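Suppose you are handed a protein chain with no further information: no name, no annotation, nothing but its sequence. What can you learn? This example shows the usual starting point.
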Amino acid sequence: MGCFQNIIMWFFFGTNFSKRDIAAANFVMHEVHCRRNIVLCEKCGEPVPRTEMEEHISEEHALVPCDMCSQQFEVSKIEAHKVSIGLKL
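A reasonable first move is to predict its three-dimensional structure. Written in structure tokens, the prediction is:
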């Protein structure tokens, strides 16, 4: 029985909420914690603590104008846009 328990302890599950591998022995506790405290952002799909969702939206998904073309982009996507537009110029 001891070998079987060791195998179970090293078997990992992926969770939908935290997007991390969790040891099977900790999976149930982790899943309960995540369901209570973590939500997936509707815009980017990233796990965010429930209490920080409003801050996440305002910091990562607020629209800002591009200095080069004046189009509006999310804060989290503006740098990639600037790189792509720089390559086109």
